[in-house]
Amino acid sequence: MLDGCGTAGSALCPVRRGGGGVRFAGGHPVSAGSRRLACGWFYKVEGGKRIPRQEYLDRADEVLSAGGLLSAAWEDVKKVRYPKRVRELGKLEGKAAEIALYECHIVPGLLQTRDHARAVIGAAQPPYSPDDVERMVAARLARQTVFEREPAPALSFVLEEGPLRRPIGGTMVWREQLERLLEVGRLHNVVLQVMRTGCDTHSGLDGRVELLKFPDGTAVGRSDGAFGGRPITEPKHLRILELRYGTIRAQALSPGESLAFIEQLLGET
Description:
Elements: H1 4-17, E1 30-32, E2 35-37, H2 39-46, H3 54-63, H4 69-72, H5 74-80, H6 84-95, E3 98-103, H7 114-122, H8 130-142, E4 154-160, H9 161-165, H10 171-185, E5 190-195, E6 209-213, E7 219-223, H11 235-251, H12 255-268
Helix pairs in contact: 1-2, 1-5, 7-8, 10-12
């Protein structure tokens, strides 16, 4: 079985060359009724250099009268559409029985709304292309299926106050993000806490801390300020991250106080 990008390319090439009614001329877009597809898009997909979005596959299927062959390729494409690092992280989160995360600079991706994620990713420098932004947003939201799992994993988040006050994306996007935090924080399997800026020092000042524990007793962790930021699995190293995370939680607001604080922020917007 070819990977998703190869599947799309191998399906597209013979259809396009086999009398689908589309010809390229001088690199210009090809019209098909009211729809237009640039020839460069076809070449990049066929060569495995571009991962197509679902709407483009559907459009190509229509333009080339492929009878659903290209549209069907989406089932394979969507498995590899997201960056490898994100796919690997999503797989780990999908297996974890417990997830614990302290984030200091942003709202964690697992908690971001679509518009908030789009604003955060779109602010990168150098900027991503619009297609890459949408691909990364989709990848981030795909990880959030962890909230739908059965049995539900135990999820713990500690967020810094600063990012909660930053109106990323504008007032409406900011409000929607705060409302999303309240929604998630009220789930029976989620503990959400806020670290107030009035806390003068704590053990998370050197960066995020993440711990994932699995049903078989194994675990993986990562911290920006420990072990070079690389993922670690050694029990003695995991104990250090667990100690740091436990200390962070103890210094943060309680879950009830945290939700009340977020409600207060929402009321101030």
